[in-house]
Design a protein that fits this description.
single chain; 221 residues; alpha+beta; Protein Transport Mog1p, Chain A; three-stranded antiparallel sheet; 6 helices; 12 strands; disordered N terminus
Length: 221
Amino acid sequence: MPAIGRTRTGAFGSRFSFGGIASALVAVAAAITIALPVCAAEYRDDAGVFTISYDEAVWTFTPGTGGGFTIDCAPKACGGTDTSCFAGRLWVPLASVARLTREFDAKDTERAVLDGLIREKAERDKGNADTGAPEVVQPYRLIHTSIGHPVYASDYRVSLSGQLMRFLSFSTAARSYSVAIVCRAPQDALSVWRPRIDALIEGFRPAPDPFWLRWLARFGL
């Protein structure tokens, strides 16, 4: 579910496509210049949809508008690396987590992420756009956090301004919202930052579903 978008056949169509928001998140993440958290702080979504526990020695959260927010590496943790994340959410009426997970359109979202990276590279590397073209390192796959919450995860590589970057895209859901998080880190620092990014995803906790949404989920809706 990195994040969220339209459906292939309308609001209640057979397949959800999160390509539009995924592409937008990639563009924002591209432009923004583990172990589990030891002393965890907590970010609370402004609509009460989810929380994320995180190590405040590693990350800083900055709320945005419309449910979006940025996650930057803390000054002492950055070590001169260009590492950050951007997240957003989209309301999908009457859709349970099970339904959003089942109907996530991985191929469409993957194409949108690549399109976003292609556009970003064209803008930033005008004279060198043919080198280090965006590519998929790991297609979307369904994983689960330690509490069993479903998350789709994928990995991309692209050269931007002469630096090889990795973009890690995650999509999940909570309370009839699809939630997307896209993180970027230099490839040569990925061994340090990948565990820290994974810990952010592990720290994601959906708010409890209201009774009516649990009822819908029981019927596969």
